[in-house]
Amino acid sequence: MFYNAKWITYQTGEYKSINDRYGNPSPYFRHTFSLHGKVSHAELLISSMGVFKVFINGSAVSNDYLSPGWVDYNKKMPFVRFDLTSLLVDQNAIGVILGDGWAVGHVGSNTTFKRTSYSDQIELSAQINVEYSDGTIEYIKTGKHWKASAGEIRRSDIYMGEYVDHRMCLGDFSRYDYDDSGWDNAEEVSFRFTRSIYLEEMTLPPIVVKHTFKPSLLSSQDNVSVLGQIQCRTVAGGQQRPLI
Q1: CA separation for the pair 8, 12 (Å, rounded)
Q2: Mean pLDDT for the stretch of residues 79-88
Q3: What's the longest Cα–Cα distance across the chain?
Q4: Which of 25, 61, 92, 214 could covalently link to 12 via disulfide, CB atoms 3.0 to 4.6 Å apart?
């Protein structure tokens, strides 16, 4: 049933080639839906060219980062399964933020360190399967009826870092009553699976925050992946340049 979901995209800037240093702003997607009975089970199946973060009714569905993780996109498309049974109410909204990740952003060795190794644009495909207590099943799928916008994440790359402008924050865009009248419709795109490119569920543990610590000096032998959290005050238009 997952193959019935459309692949969608949203252009947030001019075309970026393999030689561009940075990508475009991250696309944000949202969709509202209502339930029609008592739910016995609900799950989300989601895949993307790029990495994603999913929200339901104002809250993240998981503590994961950079899902669905890295694979060789020339051989398979990874998808992730989330249990939504306890998260759904009568009126719901789903929101998804995407980044370049390994599929669209920089990847490779020192000699082949370029963008767009697998795709030149971010794409999303998702389907919510809702099973009601009477045995009927409803499918909520991505399509051009989903809403899309750019937001505060102005660029996002695994190796080149992320730039966020909080002045462009979209607020709780995954809430049902959110005003998306200023948003555009998503664009449907064709994604053709072949014998060598197929959907495969990611069963590896997701990337999560394991430790939180105050900054300290790291030696040249340390190899860590970190998220920096900085609090500072400045005047409007001012700049702070932390050294990380």
Answers
A1: 13
A2: 96
A3: 60
A4: 25
